[in-house]
């Protein structure tokens, strides 16, 4: 009987190669190929002195959920509108398509809004076409909901501390919907 053949990624893995903390609902800012937010309303009254300003979230998102994002302004147009931002703090509780209103800039520029394009359901450092990751539970016993490689949402009840989701038959996850103090092992 012949062993497994194919490329290195198709071979069975015994050891992880990387790890990252997982925060359910945090905006994923570690995937360079995926834009995490887009500017959906450019606002007005911004000027070049605002470049480098850090803006937080002003009030609730639409629909409600998510708090704690912080962005730096990286580009303002000559017409005084916001053109580009960089996420500094990902926050938590966001869903795709949440509309986030930003605080006023130091110059008084206001009205800019961001739309969430990629949320915490995509694991940090995992591009959309990559294989999944094993999720380690560093918390007390808890239920953990994951999105499998096949795209199915599954709740694993009573995941024990110090074990991985699926325990004896670990599941590869493409995303985490709920759970705390989790680590993705790649």
Structural class: mainly beta
Distance from N terminus to C terminus (CA atoms, Å) equals: 29 Å
Number of domains: 2
Q: Give a short account of the largest sheet.
A: 4 strands, antiparallel
Using the CA coordinates, give the radius of gyration: 20 Å
Uncertain runs with pLDDT below 50, 5 residues or more?
Answer: none
This entry's quaternary arrangement is single chain
Concise structural overview:
This protein is an all-beta fold and 186 residues long.
SSE blueprint:
Blueprint: E1 19-22, E2 37-44, E3 54-56, E4 70-76, E5 82-89, E6 99-101, E7 110-116, E8 134-137, E9 142-148, E10 153-159, E11 163-164, E12 173-178, E13 182-185
Antiparallel strand pairs: 1-13, 2-7, 3-4, 4-5, 6-7, 8-11, 8-13, 9-10, 9-12
Characterise the protein shown here:
With 186 residues, the chain is mainly beta. It folds into two domains: 16-28 and 121-185, no CATH class; 37-116, no CATH class. It has no helices and 13 strands. It has strands at 19-22, 37-44, 54-56, 70-76, 82-89, 99-101, 110-116, 134-137, 142-148, 153-159, 163-164, 173-178, 182-185. A four-stranded antiparallel β-sheet has the order 1-13-8-11, with no helix packed on it. Strands 2-7-6 form a three-stranded antiparallel β-sheet, with no helix packed on it.
């Amino acid at each position: 009987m012949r062993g497994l053949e194919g490329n290195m990624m198709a071979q069975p893995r015994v050891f992880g190669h990387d790890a990252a903390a997982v925060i359910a609902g945090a905006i994923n800012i570690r995937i360079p190929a995926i834009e995490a937010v887009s500017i959906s309303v450019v606002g007005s009254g911004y000027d070049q002195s605002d470049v480098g300003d850090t803006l937080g979230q002003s009030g609730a998102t639409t629909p409600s959920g998510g708090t704690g994002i912080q962005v730096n302004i990286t580009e303002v147009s000559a017409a005084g509108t916001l053109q580009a931002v960089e996420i500094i703090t990902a926050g938590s509780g966001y869903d795709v398509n949440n509309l986030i209103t930003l605080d006023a800039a130091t110059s008084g520029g206001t009205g800019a809004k961001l739309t969430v394009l990629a949320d915490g359901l995509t694991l940090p450092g995992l591009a959309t076409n990559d294989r999944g990751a094993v999720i380690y539970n560093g918390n007390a016993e808890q239920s953990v909901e994951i999105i499998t490689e096949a795209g199915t949402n599954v709740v694993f009840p009573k995941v024990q501390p110090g074990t991985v989701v699926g325990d004896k038959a670990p599941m590869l996850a493409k995303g985490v919907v709920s759970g705390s103090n989790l680590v993705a092992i790649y």
